[in-house]
Amino acid sequence: MPASPRQFFLTRPTQFEITYSINSWMDPANSKVDSQLAQQQWDALHTLYLERGAQVEVFDPMPGWPDSVFTGDSIFLYGTQAIASRFRFAERAGEVEPQVARFAERGYTIHHLPEDVLFEGNGDAVYWNGRIFAGYGVRSDKQAHPHLQRILNVEVLPIEVLAPHFHVDTVLCPLNESTLAYAPSAIGASSLELLRGLGVTLIEVNDEEAGKLACNSMVLGNTVIMSTRLAPGFQAALQAAGFEVVTLEMSEFTKSGGGVKCLTLEAYRHGE
Fold it and tell me: Hey, which of 108, 112, 190, 198 would disulfide with 103, CB 3.0 to 4.6 Å?
C-alpha cells in the first residue's frame, strides 16, 4: 500500500513585512521586504511541493500579524492532536487563536499548555522516528516537554537551542531514519551528547551556513529542499551521502529568520 502524501499548510506572504525585531536576523530599519520577490520565492516552494506529490492547503495571512506567514510556529499537529503555541513575544501572540480555530474546524483535538509554559509549535518540535526533538532555551521552555510527551504519547528528546538561533528547526534537520543534519555550534553540550549517542549518521553544518538557515530545510523522500543557495559545504555533504538537493533562494524570508521549514506546517502522522 503506497504511503499517504505528506500534508503541508502554507500561508500566503501578501502581508509579510518586517516592522519589529524579535531575533538577530530581523532589522526593520535596513531589511525591507521586497514583496514581489517574496511572492516569487514562496510560489517556487509551493510549486515544488505540489510537483513532489505533497498535499498542500494554503491559508490567507492573518491581518495585522506579518509573521503569520511562518505557519508552523503557532501550532503543532500530530495525528488528531493539536498543541497550541504560547509565544514568548507579544508581537506574535495574536496568531495562536485564529490558528487554533482553523484546526478545531478541521477536527483536531486542541490542547493548551499551562499559562506559564512557553512553546512555539512546529518551530520547536520536529518529529523523527516516532520521537520528537523539542527545542528549549531561547523561545520555548523545557517545562513544555512533559506535556508534549503526555498529550502525544511519544518520547521527547530535549535539544537546547543557543542564541542567536531561536527554534530547533534552524539547528537540526532529520534527513531520514538514520541520518540527521545539525549545527553543533548552536546546540547545548548535553543535547550534543544526546544526539551523538543516538547511533545515527550526523552531518555537521558549520556556523556560517547555519546562519544562512541551511538546517531549516524540508526533506521529501530522498530530496532535501534547502532555504539557501549559499551553503556549499552542507550541499556537498548531502550529495556525498546520496541525497538529491534542491536549493531555493528564500532571501526575503531569511531577513526575518525563517526558511522553507518555518514557512511550512506539517501534519505529522503516527508512525510516519
Answer: 108
